Amino acid sequence: MADPFENVDAASAQMIEIIATGLETRAEDPSMLPVIDAYLEMLGVRDGGLIVDIGSGTGGVTRRIADRFPAASVVGLEPSDALTTKAKDLAGDRPNLSFDVGDGAALDLEMGCADVAILHTVLSHVKTPETLIAEAVRILRRGGTLVICDADFSKATMGVVPGDPLGSCADAFVSGAVTDAWLTGKLKPLINETGLSVEHFSVMNRVVTSGMGAMTWVRMSGARLVAEGIIGQPLADALEAEYIRRADAGLLFSFLPFVTLIAKKP
Predict the structure, then answer these.
(1) Residue 48, pLDDT above cutoff 70
(2) Domains along the chain?
(3) How would you list the strands of the sheet with 114-120, edge to edge?
(4) What is the pTM of this model?
């Protein structure tokens, strides 16, 4: 089954709602904010500069970028009409922020127009990450900064014992909703081919032990397995209930490393 993040608008209405809710939950989750803030703290953006968030989804991260750099223009580009509509609805009163539909493989932006291009949890969901990276490099001005932040889904887990049903949800999410679980290990070679200079490469672990931050894995895998006739809706509901039980009881454990790469255009 194709990664639903690759073409969100082709997914069912139920799946689109699960994706949109999951993106917003993750962008605000206390376990995710340190990952985002760590790379934002490393950026220097001139007044009047342009920051382009490629694959902005519902705009949760993009809004945080706009709040962090109020003197810069921040543009979120997302191929999904449904997610872009949601992003515009949630944009609030931020005069430096705008959203539009845009394909990361063919951006409708001039060469050298951007000070910063950000690919946040995008490349692991596409078949040809080098195409999006090349477009991001094209729109950067000389001295501009490329930020890539993505998850190492090859190490994703939610299991606490062998055969854990929530662990199976994490496995099902990766197999059905991630195009390249090993993407992060390929980032440095991909960037080296562009001629950019890698200035920062780090790993931060996102560990969810409470709240709804990892429920998307359960809901997306459950919805897919029900649609494929592999499990019934009662079992999908039971998996969600088990997630909530563990979260409430302090028994929840979800682990996912995030890699951040920052590179400069000469």
Answers:
(1) yes
(2) 4-152+179-206+258-264 (3.40.50.150)
(3) 97-101, 73-78, 50-54, 114-120, 140-151, 254-264, 197-208
(4) 0.95
